[in-house]
Specification:
Chain lengths: 167, 204
């Protein structure tokens, strides 16, 4: 039962040299390996989105560093504001969250295309903003500055292409 | 050759099998398996003496192919990445774009507790009520910072820390914890996420 016969001679009244390979242990082994792999596999893949927190608030005597080309995103519970300067502020206040993210994606892509050397994005979340909204904004930034790649390539992290800072 | 001689010769060729093996091997036409085995006998043996055969053939080739393909698929997806232990009830956001997670101390933040590497270091309600740094977290992180050179002899300290935060947590609480981490030298915040396409429930 469960054998594979390899006919390889036995003509002319000589002793047959048929070889039987027993398949049962092989199937047992394969099923055991599958069971082991299914039980030990990691189905949820973890990843991370990196951000840098300033090392401390500037003292009142020091003038704040003026960098006019800093791209800032203010995250409110129901709205987003994207701007380089106060003059070009863009408000995204769609009530639907996914639509807001879609608009943010469009605005950030325009900014990125306009100045590809821009490698820093500053986030200023409101205190009441849920963590999920902040992560969604960071995900959009990762998508655009990372060139749409879903995960870091070997030796290259998306966090090396864009620095997210919190104000 | 005369006609009587020819007729005898024909009869000799078509008639009963010739016993003498040196004679010409010409037999009556018809199906034959071997010299000594009549074909009808073989047919009876194969078909179970007239009844239906009870032997069932199982095709092992396709089954083994299937098993081998499954093993190869599982092996190719068998990541070496370790599953990150998370606090019970902690719902981590799912996003499609993320870097691989770095090995660093893990701070878990939820509405129930703030943990550092699985050990409780603060109560969220107390943290929100106070404006000071979280002392216990600060001390533990300073210890980890001091021991970094010993525990990671060939690496330089990058200030990396992993934040494992419940997706409903407000930024106010995260910011307070992040400030304490920054004071202890950990200012590179790695927000842990699950990689994948966010489903409809995680959109809201």
């Amino acid at each position: 039962m469960g054998g594979v016969s390899v006919d390889s001679g036995g003509k002319g009244g000589r002793k047959s040299v048929d070889a039987n390979v027993n398949m049962v242990p092989m199937i047992d082994l394969l099923i055991s390996v599958i069971a082991f792999l299914l039980m030990t596999a990691v189905w949820v893949q973890s990843g991370s989105l990196q951000a840098v927190q300033p090392r401390g608030a500037p003292s009142p005597d020091t003038q704040p560093e003026t960098q006019p080309d800093q791209l800032k995103i203010i995250i409110n519970p129901n709205a987003l504001q994207v701007f380089l300067t106060a003059a070009d502020r863009r408000d995204i206040s769609s009530p639907d969250r996914s639509r807001r993210m879609e608009e943010l994606r469009t605005v950030l892509r325009q900014r990125f295309e306009a100045n590809r050397s821009q490698r820093e994005v500053w986030l200023q979340p409101d205190s009441e903003v849920p963590y999920n909204d902040i992560i969604s904004v960071m995900d959009v930034i990762y998508e655009i500055w990372g060139g749409g790649q879903t995960t870091s390539r070997p030796g290259q992290r998306i966090a090396d292409m864009v620095t997210i800072r919190f104000l | 050759m005369s006609s009587s001689h020819a007729h005898r010769a024909t009869h000799h060729m078509i008639g009963t099998p010739v016993k003498n093996r040196h004679d010409t091997n010409i037999h009556q036409p018809g199906r034959r398996l071997m010299h000594a085995i009549p074909l009808r006998f073989v047919q009876k043996r194969v078909s179970g003496h007239g009844g239906k055969s009870v032997n069932a053939d199982l095709n092992l080739t396709s089954m083994i192919d299937y098993l081998v393909i499954t093993v190869v698929f599982l092996l190719s997806n068998f990541g070496t990445q370790q599953e990150m232990a998370s606090q019970r009830g902690l719902e981590i956001p799912t996003v499609p774009h993320a870097d691989t997670i770095r090995s660093a101390p893990i701070v878990s933040i939820s509405s129930q507790a703030i943990l550092l590497d699985g050990q409780r270091v603060a109560n969220p309600a107390e943290v929100l009520a106070s404006t000071d740094r979280i002392d216990r977290l600060h001390e533990r992180l300073q210890d980890l910072h001091r021991n970094f050179a010993v525990t990671h002899p060939n690496e330089t300290f990058g200030g990396d820390i992993v934040f494992q935060v419940d997706r409903a947590t407000s930024w106010r609480l995260i910011k307070r914890v992040a400030q304490t981490c920054t004071m202890a030298g950990y200012n590179s915040l790695n927000f842990a996420v699950n990689r994948g396409t966010p489903n409809a429930s995680s959109q809201h």
